[in-house]
Amino acid sequence: MKTEFDTDREIETSIATLDGTGLAHGPVYCANCIHCKLVPSPAEAAGLYRLRVRCDAGKWRKKLGEEKIYKYFTVARRSIPSCLSYEDMGDSDDFIRDLRKVLPTSDETYSF
Which end of the chain is more exposed for a tag (fewer CB within 10 A), N or C? Predict the structure, then answer.
């Protein structure tokens, strides 16, 4: 049976892109969401780690269902058209602008 929406992604896009007036919204920046979590990931050498980000709501998935984890310095680039789990942590434009200023420019290694 075919429904108006074939996928969850289409439903999320439909809900998030329209407000009461029917106007479209901009992209949802994952870094400004309460579900975007910073996690350590082991590096090559013992006692070292790299920072990674993951979606605690499980929205970042590979095609086979495995969780996708991104490098920390790329988090300001992560955006999607819409997300039903999105819970912002404040003004998105100001937050993303400030975040881009303080993020490292490459994948850095930290020690425990």
Answer: N
